[in-house]
Design a protein that fits this description.
Shape: flat
Strand content: under 5%
Low-confidence stretches: none
Radius of gyration: 13 Å
Mean pLDDT: 92
Structural class: mainly alpha
Largest sheet: none
Distance between the termini: 39 Å
Helix content: over 70%
Number of helices: 2
Length: 42
Amino acid sequence: MRYVIVIVSIAFFLIWDGLYNEGRYLDTTVREVSRVVRYVTG
């Protein structure tokens, strides 16, 4: 049940971000994660 709540909340956030913010938060998150991965891997 815990995993279902987490998955539903993530899906709700993605839908909300896509509809109201044109994916701005998701885009920023992906950019930061890729930057951190590039920094860690060298």
